[in-house]
Write a structure and sequence with these properties.
MetI-like fold; 10 helices; 0% strand
């Protein structure tokens, strides 16, 4: 609790997670309900954050949009971590082998295509949607976790406790799971928070260009896209979803920085 970054970041992240969870059971208004006479209202006692050009309640849309962004980022990061970590462990265990070379060159190939390009390729075949956005972001996360895991695992394979495990007759797979993975978990936890924030940005970007969540499901990115022609006379339509994205990403980055300080013993020693 001594880390201000962790406290502030955790509070901001918890706020939007709570909004997303509450939206499953309650929102002030139905996000699919249009009320044209009430369109483009500024924040007031009835509509706390105002209404959009269809008269929909922005506060309700922000709540459901948080659910969309968090769900897409969470599943995408889960895909990246679930595939990338085993690949990184396997590459480190077989350093210099054909398997290591294939995994690393495959990572380079994926890195050559940003998530937006991957999304365009996927939607060209299967059509736009939240599921395809998840697949695109998840594929882009795989080499991130694979490289991080391999880079952190390689020095460990030269340590004495790994040599002792080899002498005890343990195989490479067992050593990777029992000794290597626990020693790189701290780095992975921090990277998860970073990739989670990037996943929210990627989802917003894909929705902005029409490749993410589709109507009537609200999305922060599509709310920004809808507001771009009305900024001059209804700036709140862009400021509110933009602020939600900024605060969520800021909270996750601060939390990741705080977790790094908390989990890295070298940083704790330097600061004491």
């Amino acid at each position: 609790m001594k880390s201000r970054n962790l406290i502030i970041g955790g509070a901001l992240s918890a706020l939007f997670v709570a909004a997303a969870l509450i939206s499953f059971a309650w929102t002030p208004f139905d996000v699919t309900q249009m009320n044209i006479p009430a369109k483009l209202q500024t924040p007031n006692s009835t509509h706390w954050l105002g209404t959009d050009h269809f008269g929909r309640d922005i506060f309700s849309m922000i709540m459901v949009g948080a659910r969309t962004s968090i769900a897409v980022a969470l599943v995408a990061v889960g895909i990246g971590m679930g595939v990338g970590v085993p690949l990184g462990l396997a590459a480190a265990a077989r350093q210099g082998s054909l398997l290591d070379e294939v995994i690393m060159r495959g990572n380079d190939l994926v890195f050559a295509f940003p998530s937006l390009v991957i999304a365009i390729l996927i939607t060209a075949v299967f059509g736009p949607g939240a599921v395809n956005a998840i697949i695109a972001i998840g594929i882009f996360n795989i080499p991130v976790f694979a490289r991080l895991t391999r880079g952190a695992a390689l020095p460990l394979w030269q340590r004495e406790f790994i040599m002792a495990a080899r002498v005890a007759g343990k195989g490479a797979s067992r050593i990777s799971l029992e000794h290597i993975l626990p020693n790189v978990t701290n780095l992975l936890i921090v990277q998860v928070t970073i990739q989670f924030s990037l996943g929210i940005l990627a989802e917003a970007g894909l929705s902005y260009v029409g490749l993410g969540a589709q109507p009537p499901l609200p999305s922060w990115g599509r709310m920004l896209a809808d507001a771009q022609t009305m900024v001059s006379f209804a700036p709140h339509l862009a400021l509110i979803p933009g602020g939600a994205i900024i605060l969520t990403v800021l909270g996750l980055n601060l939390m990741g920085d705080g977790l790094r300080d908390l989990l890295d013993p070298r940083i704790r020693v330097e600061r004491t």
